[in-house]
Amino acid sequence: MKPTLLVLAAGMGSRYGGLKQMDGLGPNGETIIDYSIYDAVQAGFGKVVYIVREYFKEDMEKHVHEKYSNVKCLDGTPLEFAFVTQELNKIPEGFTYNPEREKPWGTAHAVLMAKDVIKEPFAVINGDDYYGKDSFRVIGEWLKAHENTTGKYCLVGFELENTLSESGGVSRGICAAGADHLLTHVEEHHKVEKAADGKIYAENSKGDKVEIPANTLASMNMWGFTPDYFDKSAEIFKRFLKENGNELKAEFYIPYVIDCTIKDNTATTELLSTTSRWFGVTYKADRPGVVAKFQEFADKGIYPTPLY
Questions:
Q1: Cβ within 8 Å of residue 55, ≥6 positions away
Q2: Right CATH number for 4-299 from 3.40.30.10, 3.40.50.300, 3.90.1150.10, 3.90.550.10?
Q3: What is the pLDDT of residue 285?
Q4: DSSP state string for 43-90
Q5: Which of 39, 109, 126, 204 has the fewest CB atoms within 10 Å, counting from its CB?
Q6: What's the chain's average pLDDT?
Q7: How far is 291 from 84, CA to CA, in rounded Å?
Q8: Residue ranges per domain, the chain?
Q9: Are strands 170-177 and 217-225 parallel, antiparallel or unpaired?
Q10: Residue 25 neighbours by CB under 8 Å, 6+ apart
């Protein structure tokens, strides 16, 4: 069994100012997604599914077919690709939404769009985040070990200090787990950044300023699921729409689904850790640092150049 990589690439990147998913940041114009796919293939993945918006689906497909036409999996078979679109009107039959709403329903809604093309364990990542080789190794091994299980999911947590931006505060899901390493909740924190005293501060969900230890595990939206997740999430989405269908900005996030499965006792989510250091382009000012990092990787031979 080869797991599938599901790439969330439908966001516009309002703070960044453009389509981060298509931005060439590597020495030969490689995108962050290019590096994620390279690491995923090395970790034994066999298929990549893109969640995109209809208006740039054609450009993304062209980019993918040009760049990955000769990429092989570890067993020598061609790497497979699929594309599905996330749009506001893709909701269950019988439900309605506010006609003034403009954006789709969030990350968990995006994942649901892939229900018909994924039948094997799969990982979910953001298209504009670099996760690192070790994180793909960790989640790849977990997915292969859970091929025939249901109701067991995972989240790769990154040490908070390894997820900060030098260009400003960021939002991070701070993870909490029991002694059994099972996730108990993920609490969204905002304005997370390191202060002059070297400590990390943030605003919690109540708006209070709190200090967070540097080694606290944070979610960077790197999830591992078995296919039964789709049915569970679809039912939870219906409940969400009953309560929030008329809202203009309410979003159906993956942590919301996970929290529901924990409360309903219908699934457990194991919190995994990684030695990888995250980086990304949250802000336009992050771009030069990311370009320099990928050049460093090439200079040190961590990645081939060109990548493909």
A1: none
A2: 3.90.550.10
A3: 87
A4: TT--EEEEEE-HHHHHHHHHHHHHHHTT-B-TTSPBPEEEEEE--TT-
A5: 204
A6: 91
A7: 29
A8: 4-299
A9: antiparallel
A10: 31, 32, 281, 287, 290, 291, 294
pLDDT in the model for residue 13: 42
User: Minimal CA–CA distance to 83: which of 109, 58, 112?
Assistant: 58
Is the pLDDT assigned to residue 20 strictly greater than 60? no
pLDDT value of residue 15:
38
SS3 (DSSP) at 152: strand
Decide: helix, strand or coil at residue 266.
coil
- Residue 62 has what pLDDT? 86
Q: How far apart are CA 33 and CA 21, in angstroms?
A: 7
Beta strands in the chain (DSSP E): 4-8, 47-52, 80-85, 122-126, 129-130, 152-159, 170-177, 183-194, 200-203, 209-212, 217-225, 268-273, 279-280
pLDDT tens digits, one per residue of 250-308: 989 999 999 999 999 999 999 999 999 998 887 788 899 999 999 999 999 999 999 98
SS (H, E, C) 41-52: HHCCCCEEEEEE
Which position has the token pair 């939404």?
97
Contact 187/176 with Cβ under 8 angstroms?
yes
Rounded to the nearest angstrom, the gap between the alpha carbon of residue 10 and the centroid of all alpha carbons in its chain is 11
Percent of the chain residues past pLDDT 70, beyond the cut: 96
Tokens 């439908």 belong to: 10
